[in-house]
Specification:
six-stranded parallel beta sheet, six-stranded mixed beta sheet, 12 strands, 16% strand
Length: 347
């Protein structure tokens, strides 16, 4: 019995040490870097200059750098290169390696067991077929309720459309993108059942030309509001709208108001800077790992201020959106996570 207890204690100590600061990491001599802090690497599937999803994660990394952490990143990492990039950072003694997006989930699950002293964080949903009990001790997933923010943005769009035709341009057909579009469509329907949403999944986050083509097609159909959740592909949506009169935008990933101040009504956002910074703190506090599902109630998902549209949105629409937000926080309103295309069904 005593041997069993000793073994359990040793195993517990090993697991607790698994995500502690890697003692073999070389002390940094870079000015402004605290060598006692974690070394953090970020793997971005897109460009850090996309003005949204990837740019927000990059900002979180730079915030850590400003706090004295040693950081590194690689942008525009294709799906076929994610695993190798994760492996390289782990092999080079980084303490926390972040894969930014759902597409990083399977590579992290394959790499993490090779580096039990390295923490891996995926800012996305767990891969299909993986349950919470399958998550290794040194891995964390963020299955954010981004669709709650998309729901509120959909309410705004539904209340503001004059043509009752709204476009939506998505990136890849992955769970988070599909649930965001579904949440948006449900928000539109909640406030304006007459409005129709025409969604397009472009199949890429990195092709502005495809985003522009999709948006122009929706505008030709009569859409006077276009929402996008397509990262760099979404920049093409901004380009398309800039060429048209009477068409406005719902942005994504960050407050994209400055990209087109007279066209962006609001944006639905996941606070990736805070989410990424929090992971370093969780490691330092010894509570890293597992599944984290933050949403509007946690302050991680939300919609941006209305800026130039503050006085253009009818007061009753703003009040309905605010009421829905309060009800989501209280639990009175539950926005379901829907992983299927419902835009076509509600037309």
């Amino acid at each position: 019995m005593k041997k069993i207890m000793v073994s359990i204690l040793l195993l517990t100590a090993f697991l607790m040490a698994g995500c502690s600061k890697n003692s073999s990491a070389a002390a940094s001599k870079t000015p402004g870097v605290d060598s006692t802090k974690l070394r953090v690497a970020l793997v971005l599937p897109g460009s850090m200059n996309d003005g949204g999803w990837n740019a927000a994660a990059y900002k979180g990394l730079m915030d850590l750098k400003n706090e004295g952490y040693s950081v590194a990143f690689t942008e525009n990492v294709g799906i076929s290169s994610i695993e190798e990039t994760l492996h390289n950072y782990a092999a080079n003694n980084f303490d926390l390696v972040i894969g930014h997006g759902f597409e990083c989930g399977e590579p992290v699950m394959r790499v993490s067991d090779q580096y039990p002293k390295v923490c891996f964080f995926v800012s996305g949903k767990m891969p299909d077929g993986v349950s919470e009990s399958d998550i290794p001790a040194n891995v964390g997933f963020m299955d954010m309720k981004e669709y709650e923010g998309a729901y509120l943005a959909g309410m705004v769009a539904g209340g503001m459309t004059k043509s009752n035709i709204i476009g939506y341009v998505a990136g890849m057909e992955i769970p988070s993108q599909v649930s965001d579009m579904a949440g948006f469509v449900m928000g539109v329907a909640a406030i304006n059942p007459k409005a129709k949403v025409y969604g397009v999944v472009t199949g890429t986050f990195e092709d502005p030309a495809k985003g522009k083509e999709a948006a122009l097609a929706q505008i030709d159909m009569g859409a006077d509001i276009i929402a996008q959740s397509a990262d760099s592909t979404g920049i093409g949506v901004f380009e398309a709208v800039a060429e048209q009169q009477g068409v406005n935008l719902i942005g994504y990933g960050a407050d994209q108001y400055e990209l087109q101040p007279d066209r962006v009504i609001t944006c639905f956002i996941t606070d990736n800077p805070s989410a990424i910074k929090l992971q370093a703190k969780r490691i330092e506090e010894g509570v890293f790992g597992g599944l984290w599902s933050p949403g509007i109630a946690d302050g991680i998902c939300f919609i941006s201020p209305y800026h130039n549209f503050e006085d253009k949105i009818p007061q009753n629409i703003k009040e309905q959106v605010e009421t829905a937000k309060r009800n989501i926080i209280s639990g009175q309103l539950v926005v379901p996570a829907v992983y299927e295309r419902i835009d076509e069904k509600l037309r």
